[in-house]
Specification:
With 311 residues, the protein is an alpha+beta fold. The protein has 7 helices and 15 strands. Strands 5, 6, 7, 8, 9, 12, 13, 14 and 15 form a 9-stranded mixed sheet that branches. Responsible for synthesis of pseudouridine from uracil.
């Protein structure tokens, strides 16, 4: 079976009187904890009846166990993901507009939709370079960040674009709505980033972290927040969010990095106001300079309008 492994066994004399979970552990090579989980899920039947883990077994009793196959968390599952749109497609690259709530590739702990899963489901052949779950991936956007990104279809594209990102020749432009008004209105944050010492899921500005450079410019200043254009020189995880938080101007809606939950609720935001609006680079096939854009989606556009109208 592809989804579950079904086992039927007769209890041997040597296990007579044992608890069901202990007997299962010995007969199937499971841990007692795993055996107890299967029993709790109603996946274990003894002589035709459901059992509790503390029930005792008799010799010759028929034990029926259904063991769900645990999926590989890094396996790419082909599926069409609603909301992903194709901006550009040719022999070398595919450029997409990634919606919020979609990861770029599978990872442990993530069971939601992925960009690579969508492309596989839509019949795209992606470059085979890189780890199997990250084939063709030369850049990433957080699950909670939307916008334009490129995926490589050819080996040539993968090699050249990976190098372009490494050499920082790619124009990565974002818009961020941040709380308050950065001073100065235009500037550069050059501060190393490392994993937060107190929380695995966060990052922070820390001595000894990886070099990280963010350039920002204020486009609009409003009563409660400012709309910034942000250019990334480096591409660290959560870089814009961490740097804006370090400036005491977190992205609006970014509760992980200190945003005001009252303001987020007022704007109807379920995530940080951050969007990848433009991506420019030398095309790996033609050598021409190309640029692709994405407008902020509805949830961000609505929040920005409320900020603009606030007096």
């Amino acid at each position: 079976m592809t989804q579950a492994d079904y086992r039927t066994l007769h209890v041997p004399e040597g296990l007579a009187g044992e608890r069901v979970d202990a007997a299962m552990a010995k007969m199937l090579g499971l841990s007692r904890t795993r055996a107890a989980e299967l029993i709790a899920q109603g996946l274990v039947v003894l002589d035709g009846d459901p059992v509790a883990k503390s029930d005792r077994v008799l010799p010759g009793a028929l034990l029926e166990v259904t063991m769900p196959v645990v999926a590989d968390p890094l396996e790419v599952t082909p599926e069409i993901v609603e909301g992903i749109s194709i901006i550009h497609d040719d022999d070398d690259i595919v450029v997409i507009d990634k919606p919020v709530g979609v990861a770029v590739h599978p990872s442990p702990g993530w069971q939601g939709p992925t960009v690579v899963g969508h492309l596989a489901g839509a019949g795209y052949r992606i470059s085979t370079s890189g780890a199997s779950e990250r084939q063709g991936i030369v850049q990433r956007l957080d699950v909670g960040t939307s916008g334009v990104m490129v995926i490589c279809k050819s080996e040539r594209a993968y090699s050249r674009l990976k190098n372009a990102f490494r050499e920082r020749t790619v124009d990565k432009t974002y818009q961020a709505l941040v709380q308050g008004h950065p001073d100065p209105l235009e500037g550069t944050v050059d501060a190393p980033i490392a994993r937060h010492p107190g929380a695995d899921y966060k990052f922070a500005v820390l001595d000894g972290g990886r070099p990280s450079v963010t350039h920002y410019k204020t486009l609009e200043a409003h009563r409660y927040a400012s709309l910034l254009e942000v250019h990334l020189e480096t591409g660290r995880t959560h870089q814009i969010r961490v740097h804006m938080s370090a400036l005491k101007h977190p992205c609006v809606g970014d509760l992980t990095y200190g945003a005001d939950p009252t303001l987020a609720a007022r704007l109807g935001l379920q995530r940080q106001w951050l969007h990848a609006v433009r991506l420019g680079f030398e095309h790996p096939g033609s050598g021409e300079q190309v640029s692709f854009e994405s407008a902020p989606p509805q949830d961000l556009a609505r929040a920005l309008e409320i900020i603009r109208d606030a007096h």
